[in-house]
Write a structure and sequence with these properties.
Elements (H helix, E strand, L loop, with lengths): L17 H12 L5 E4 L5 E3 L5 H4 L10 E2 L6 H12 L5 H11 L5 H9 L3 H29 L9 H11 L2 E5 L7 H12 L5 H18 L4 E6 L5 E10 L6 E9 L8 H15 L5 E3 L6 H9 L13
Parallel strand pairs: 7-8
Antiparallel strand pairs: 1-2, 1-3, 4-5, 5-6, 6-7
């Protein structure tokens, strides 16, 4: 296909499906940068090969609907593998992947080969990687809309948060006065966690949550949001915990029901609890949970939260 001239503007660019995301990821990871993206369809457009004489000439401007893929370097890919490795519970796999990450040439291929021996973790890595890269692609798509003079797909982050604030009112109560059966949402989150966490890890987390409720039923904080009919859709439980360095906030449970994910409600809950900690003069606030999905973990990284430690499963 040849593109040589102005292309009439459409009402919008392509919608990001899983298939198109897979194509764009392929182009992003191709370090030869041999493909462009057709912004109307999401199709890959091969970059024309140049003769030696053409290589010396300035780059010709691209048609308005053709764009290079989002930037993604080997260093970005390496950091993604390191971040995923830090979330793995199986000791022998973590050690094997750490050995791979410590080598030089062929690290990406070796990483995939090791993961291929562990189908569950291999699937989790693909989900984690796709969630991370989807965020990159969506930001790039909005940048491309602006370049074309089109409106961004979503509202700006500040405006989006205003809409969330208007739609979902955040409320707070002591944990022991929860207006809904909190244990049912614990059970729902634990059941979902079995998709990426071994049963013993989920059982251990349940024990920890039960102990947290017993200890902090009266002095702990429950922040939550309801939908219009009053049904709870998002919640987080936190308590102030004394340490030798002083009291800190410990968020022990964070959950959003599946149909309301992707709205940033988790971040809204985290911010509200962080403000409570600051208002109380606490020096730090931590989120500790074995129930966070790989996709949510990637979002937390994107929001700038720092990973502090991990846990290991020793088979």
């Amino acid at each position: 296909m040849v593109y040589n001239g102005a292309v009439a503007k459409e009402a919008r660019i392509f919608e990001l499906s899983d298939t198109i995301l897979e194509r764009i990821i392929f182009a992003m990871e191709d370090q030869s940068r041999s493909h462009y993206i057709d912004l109307r369809t999401g199709d890959l457009v091969p970059k024309p090969e140049k003769t030696l004489r053409e290589e010396a000439l300035p780059e010709a401007p691209l048609p308005e609907w053709i764009a290079p893929p989002p930037q993604w370097s080997p260093a970005d890919g390496f950091r993604l593998m390191e971040a995923f490795c830090g979330r793995i519970n199986r000791m022998e796999l973590k050690l094997a992947l750490n050995r791979v990450l410590g080598r030089g040439k062929g690290v990406f291929k070796a990483f995939r080969q090791v993961l291929a021996e562990y189908p569950r973790e291999d699937a989790l890595f693909r989900d984690y990687k796709n969630a991370t890269l989807r965020c990159q692609v969506e930001l790039w798509m909005d940048d491309m809309r602006e370049v074309l003079g089109l409106a961004r797909l979503g509202v700006e982050p500040e405006d989006f948060q205003d809409l969330v604030d208007e739609e979902f009112c955040l409320e707070a109560r002591p944990i022991g006065e929860a207006p809904f059966p909190l244990a049912e949402f614990f059970a729902q989150a634990l059941e979902e966690a079995l998709d990426w966490s071994p049963p013993f890890a989920a059982a251990l987390e349940k024990t920890g949550l039960d102990d947290f409720l017993r200890r902090h039923g009266q002095d702990g904080f429950l922040h939550y949001m309801n939908e219009a009919e009053g049904k709870p859709i998002a919640m987080a439980a936190m308590a102030f915990v004394d340490t030798e360095a002083g009291p800190v906030g410990l968020i022990r449970f964070l959950y959003v029901v599946p149909e309301f994910r992707g709205l940033g409600l988790e971040l809204k809950l985290i911010d509200s609890l962080r403000r409570r900690c600051r208002d109380a003069g606490l020096g730090a606030c931590f989120l500790r949970s074995a129930l966070l999905s790989p996709g949510l973990s990637a979002s937390l990284d994107g929001w700038g939260l720092k990973t502090c430690g991990t846990q290991y499963l020793i088979d």
